[in-house]
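Look over what follows to help learners.
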Amino acid sequence: MDAIPPASEMAANRGLLRMLTCGSVDDGKSTLIGRLLYDAQLIAEDTLAAITRDSRKHGTVGEEVDLALLVDGLEAERQQGITIDVAYRFFTTGSRSFIVADCPGHEQYTRNMATGASNSELAIILVDARKGLLTQTRRHSFICSLLGIRHVVLAVNKIDLVEFDQAVFDRIVAEYHGFAAAFGFRTLAAIPLSGRFGDNVTQRSPRTPWYLGPTLIEHLEAVDVDEDAEALPFRFPVQWVNRPNLDFRGYAGTVASGRIALGEPVVVAASGVTSQITRILGPDGDQPAAAAGEAVTLCLAQEIDIARGDMLAPPAQRPSVADQFAAHILWMDEEKLLPGRQYLLRMGHAWTTASITAIKHRIDVTTLGQQPATSLALNEIAVCNLSTAQKLAFDPYGENRLTGAFILVDRTSNRTVGCGMVQFPLRRATNIHQEAYLVDKAARAAAKGQRPMVLWFTGLSGSGKSTVAKRVEEVLHAAGRHTYSLDGDNLRHGLNRDLGFTPQDRVENIRRVGEVAKLMVDAGLIVLASFISPYRAERQMVRDLLAPGEFVEIFVDTSLEVCAARDVKGLYAKAMRGEIANFTGVSSPYEAPEAAELVLDGGGVAPEDLAQQVLDLVERFQAG
């Protein structure tokens, strides 16, 4: 058997192919990649010797060398026999170079699989010939299509375990074609193979005489995945404003698509300000033009307001610019996505806050059907509407993968919790504008002789926060301060009467309260807000609505036992018996503040003394 020519014998190369292997657990992804590396003679002797030794300890193929161990590098992966992380490998043949991402098959690590798919041009989707299409096979195929992969190999693996039966192969291929018909794959090659024994991997197998197509490596060498990024409109996300001295201002970044030349006009997409290219500086100095994939610095004819995250584009081919858009979202976090909660969104080099305003529908990855949803759990996919704090420039993901993708980040933990693919901007009413008042917040506050602020009391039900807030307001009012009290129970009789106590309703409850508190601060008032407000993210959202120093978080720290003992209505007892759902502290979490301006001992200090602590803080604030 002739091996694939090593890198030293490379001839004319078709270029680099970025691909990934995916599918369900135990479909043989790592073994297949190990087989490719082994047949390409790219395994050093010492590595092969180490794998041979490890096969005796971790292997799953008896006395044979377990080629999967070449990519299952983590000890946890070897012990469990599954891939957890995304393992990248580089190899070459006489016709092409390859970067292959071995992605995990377990549902728990779907987010890792999405990471591998985001930079790939082709997907090898493995199916165990004994099991056929599984839910994870369908999920991975759908994610590949969402992430813009247009070339797929359906690798029906372990064909040796079904006696090389053509009928089994044909049934799986027919079922997959029916399932994937709506995905728009440009190429879909189905190959029967055995990663363990090498059938139809690099050499045609005599045990599948009924298969007349190419081997896997022949197909990978020949498939044309080139997408002419230069043919797309010019897009240049600004990564850095380069100003080493007063005589030079340039905008550094990588051309996402299209090309640009000296003298051509460009527009700042968000602001609409136009200019012309006067210099293009690459790694070797000045150059006349730049194309997709080149890292350059652009200089313009005028010094205009451009910052990191802005995008330059041709005036006649502008991207969409909007602060509301529809997108597919793949949720990647253990904690559920909640509409109304604010997340950080990164698109290109731009960062802003964003919230999901509506989940239009969740997608059933098995049937591709649409399902109603009020939240998203780990690995679920949905079409959502988003609203951002600032307008962003983007293209639909289907038109440009680099300018239509984004990630969502949790604001408190900085975890990446989701990834998204923009569908289209939402054309909301364009005749709504922010009005400037002749009498502003400063004037209203001056008329009242006070500095407006929000005293945000948070704690468990029964912690004493409302009691303390009432006493504080009583004293402030007697002293001539202008105040208003917002209490959770009172607002649920009016403004928030349509909301329950599910996590998503709690988020919306605090969002509305935050907007009301902001208006009252604008009116120059001292606002006392008493809410359980169990989530840090929503308390931070209210803080961010206000100017620095206007939000004062007061944590009434009272133990669950004390709160339950004070509960004359017996709500805690009912919650502990399971008669009340989503009860904070029992069946729903409370996230205590990590850096509150004031922490009150609600279990061991009299309410009058706690109120005095708050009043002392207010007076210090008012004194400035």
DSSP finds 15 helices and 28 strands in the chain. The longest helix spans residues 503-522. The chain has four domains: 7-222, 229-313, 322-425, 443-623. Residues 443-623 form a domain with the Rossmann fold fold (CATH 3.40.50.300).
